[in-house]
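Format is sequence with structure; example below:
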Amino acid sequence: MISRWPFLLTLVPLLAISNPRSMATESQPDPETQQSLAHAQQLSKAFAWSAQRIRPSVVEISTGRRVNGRSRLATPNTIVTGTGSGVIVDASGFILTNHHVVNGVQGVVVSLHDGRQFQARIVGSDPLADLAILKIEANDLTAATFADVEDIAVGQWVLAVGSPFGLELTVTAGIVSATGRRDLAFSSRGGYENYIQTDAAINPGSSGGPLVNLQ
């Protein structure tokens, strides 16, 4: 995903809301309401299943800078100057992220969903497409599966997954708002343009994370 316009991520406590008076007079919903609740629960389960399935493929990216005038690979103890997200696209250790996440950094650490951390090397980067490929040496990796671009439809449900504000594995939901977006204000430099627009909340740190369908 390309996060150019941040949206507010709101954190709220989980509360069970009830109205004893209404519960006393309406202990069971009517059949039509029951059917609506069943549909809503099915959609909720679909979101949960999709989020769980993509979880092993999403990584958090931390970047380091020069320390004491020398170039140094990032480690968990290195001063962190930036964070981003990425998605494993090959089980041999290749990770896709955004160019602007790793541009100009001297060290990159990739954190997996299971808590493992690896130093990563940048094997390719394209500033015009704002894409970069990282490589880590790790086993037991789960690669995400790419969807067919021809199957993307305006209005379909999608999930955006990443680590906004350094928060581990955050999932937001929305729809595909438009496809084939071009001539955008931030892309005046030229290059490849064929963006997917979504209303799923994307915040700083989400850059490089995947946009996934419910499959």
Observations:
- The chain is about 15% helix and 30% strand.
- Helices lie at 20-25, 31-54, 99-102.
